[in-house]
Amino acid sequence: AQSVAQPEDQVNVAEGNPLTVKCTYSVSGNPYLFWYVQYPNRGLQFLLKYITGDNLVKGSYGFEAEFNKSQTSFHLKKPSALVSDSALYFCAVKGTSGTYKYIFGTGTRLKVLA
Amino acid sequence: GAGVSQSPSNKVTEKGKDVELRCDPISGHTALYWYRQSLGQGLEFLIYFQGNSAPDKSGLPSDRFSAERTGGSVSTLTIQRTQQEDSAVYLCASSPRLAGGETQYFGPGTRLLVL
Fold it and tell me: Which residue in B has a C-alpha nearest to residue A35's C-alpha?
C-alpha cells in the first residue's frame, strides 16, 4: 500500500536561515512525488514535483526538493526562509502501477520567525 | 484561465440533513478528485473520476456519501443524513488525465459544519 510520512507536525525556523521539511514515502514501483502548500483559508497550491530524471527538483518561490531513492525520501528545502513562507506544507505520492490515487501526508506547519 | 471552483464556500447544516457540494474543474481536465480535510489531518482521498470510466469510490467513508460527474465536467458530492463527524473542508482537484505524474489543481474548498 502507498503511504507518505511527514514526521514533523511543525517546523520553526528563523528568517534568512535554510529550511527543510521532511517527507518519506512507500509505494510500489517508481513514485511520482509532489509538494503542495496551503496558505490560511486558501486551497492547496502546487510547488514542485518529481517525475523522472534529475533528483534535484526546483519549484516555485525558491523551493527545491531532492529525491533520494535509497532513503525513500523527498525532503523540501529552501536556502533562505521568508516570513511569507509560513504555511502548511503537504507531501504527496502517486504510484506508477495499480492505482491513480494520490496519497497525501498529514502536513507540516512551517513557521518562519522574523 | 479559470481555475477549479467549488460552491458553496461555506455550508452550515443540521445533523440529519442532506448536503450537496459542487465542483467545476478546469476546462479540458478529464480527471477529477474529491478529498476531505479534517482539522489537524491530512487530505483523505474520497473518489476520483476519469472521463466516462467507472469512478474509484474506494475512499468514500460510508454509503451516506456519493458523487456524480455529469457530462465529464461538473461534479457533485452528496452527503446524506449528515453527522457531526462529517464536518470538514471538502476539496476538489482536477488534472489533465489520471495516468502519469500530472499536477493536480485544487479548488478553494467547501467548509462544511454539521451542528
Answer: B103
